[in-house]
Amino acid sequence: MAASPGSPAALRRVREALSAALGELREEAFQAASQEATKLSLAFSRPPPPSLQEQESLAEGVQSAVLAAASVYYQLPKGQGTTLRRAVRDATVQVVEGMIQLIEVILRTPLQSLSQEQLVSTGGVWEACSRVFRMPRDNQAAVTLAITQALGIVNDALEEMKQAQTEGGDPYSDVLEDEDLGSRANRDTYWSAADRQLLGPCLGLVKAAKICLKRVQGAVRGRGRTDKAEQVAQLDDLADIAGDVSPSVDELVLSTYPPVNQLALRLNAAKLASVLKKMLELTSASFVCPPSEENWVQFLAGAVDHNMDKIKELTQGLL
User: Fold this and answer.
1) Domain named Cyclin-D1-binding protein 1-like C-terminal: which ranges (predicted)?
2) E strand or H helix at 79, and its extent?
3) What CATH number is given to the structural domain containing 152?
4) Checking phi first, is residue 182 left (phi over 0); if not, alpha (psi -120 to 50) or beta?
């Protein structure tokens, strides 16, 4: 039996049609911007310069292309999701900034031949325009991408932290030469015994951050939907909190390097723990986490509490 006009199946078809139309609009607008950048660059690649009439035509073409690219963002309905709109906005800004840079290079470069700087600037506009073909098509894809980017940053920070701890007492051994530290007698570049006790639970907290992001990423990718406004909003909340994880991880990792301020380390650990607990709460309350998936949420919440409690225990005397 055919689906009624108001059924979820019908709504999904409408959403898919809108997404396809928006995708075509994006590609057409950004391709036009790329073409106008090429025309502008070639026109000023060798003497004589374009006539005043030709310059006006080029300027109008660039302006129209940039406005068309910007209109893609403004025509994107807010109901499509904040994360998706942010991705489109960022792509548009990169195109506009690239075009401004290209014009500035042309204005300050003598008209003799196509300079290396002009080539680089033109290529920058091409690259910014080509990103539209890799952009997410709906909010589920946009949120998945945002979480994936945060996961990559956290993974890099975790590997950096592991490497520093495996290099012995001097985590700066790979960046400071002997002459920089004299006889390496500067103890500010070494961990004390008390510092080393803190490294374990800090590492555990960063590992928990990585696993949290990975599990939320999988949940959004596998069960994310954008059929209802509530689903779109919940996905946006997950993207926002995931965006808070990576800077919190970076702050904690930086605070583990000697000389360690243990009170600052504790505060940074508490901030990361709070962000992770909030992300797990939002995940548990969202549609991407059915009751059958609540076990891993509870397990990770327990891991966060365990490592944070250990850090509190080791820094209790500072309060």
Assistant:
1) 177-281
2) none
3) 1.20.1410.10
4) left
